[in-house]
Design a protein that fits this description.
two-stranded parallel ribbon; alpha/beta; 17% strand; Arc Repressor Mutant, subunit A
């Protein structure tokens, strides 16, 4: 999905993990991207921010977007610090009917647990569509919020994640779904 239209507000936010790019449509989160590098392939944003740059954000954003952004950053930071188990961020999804069905199913995977691609396919009523599930997960516009990192391959293999396998490992360790020693793999 192209989020470059005028109805979208893009904000880049840097924290200790790297650079996060939030895209909002009014007060709803539409996209969340992550990069460890300054020069990501996401279009330049209107607002650059970091955890302590609240004044800059307030001055450059409409109030509804500013409130949504602050809530999203707070919850993201709490989650990454291991202090939050779920998100309560309003969002709007753009995708096919099947993709949206798959993304919504991700909310059913409890914190600290994993499911296989096959189990997700069964959850959405398409038990033979494991590859299509993988395709939908690959383009999940709001990872972490809709936790595609909790989906693993056969026999527990950590495969496929749009933000990278290193990030997937780190997130599953935070949640206690895999042992901390797996960070060394």
């Amino acid at each position: 999905m192209d989020f470059s239209g005028e109805q979208f507000t893009t904000i880049r936010h840097r924290n200790l993990w790297g650079q996060w790019t939030f895209v909002f449509e009014k007060s709803k989160l539409c996209c969340l991207n992550y990069s460890t590098e300054d020069n990501s392939d996401v279009r330049p944003s209107a607002v650059q921010a970091c955890t302590y740059a609240v004044a800059d954000v307030e001055a450059n954003l409409p109030p509804t977007v500013s409130r949504a952004y602050r809530k999203a950053v707070l919850q993201l930071n709490e989650y990454l610090a291991g202090k939050r188990k779920s998100f309560s961020i309003p969002y709007k999804l753009y995708g096919t009917e099947f993709q949206i069905k798959v993304w919504e199913a991700l909310k059913e995977i409890p914190f600290g647990e994993t499911r296989s691609y096959k189990e997700i396919a069964e959850m959405v009523g398409s038990p033979k569509a494991t590859r299509a599930v993988g395709g939908a997960l690959h383009v999940n516009p709001i990872p972490l919020i809709l936790p595609c990192h909790r989906v693993i391959g056969k026999a527990g293999a950590l495969v496929g994640f749009g933000l990278g396998l290193d990030m997937k490992r780190r997130l599953l360790v935070i949640e206690g779904a895999i042992p901390q020693e797996m960070l060394l793999e």
